[in-house]
Amino acid sequence: MNSTSLRSSSEAKKGAVLRRVLEGAEMARALTRIAHEIIESNKGSKDLIIVGIPTRGAVLAERIASSINRIEQTTVPVGVLDVTMYRDDLGSQPTLAPKPTAMPDVSLDGKTVVLVDDVLFSGRTVRAALDALGDHGRPAAVRLAALVDRGHRELPIRADFIGKNLPSAKHERIQVRLAETDGVDEVTIDGDSQGADGRGA
Question: Exposed end of the chain (fewer CB within 10 Å): N or C?
Answer without folding.
Answer: N
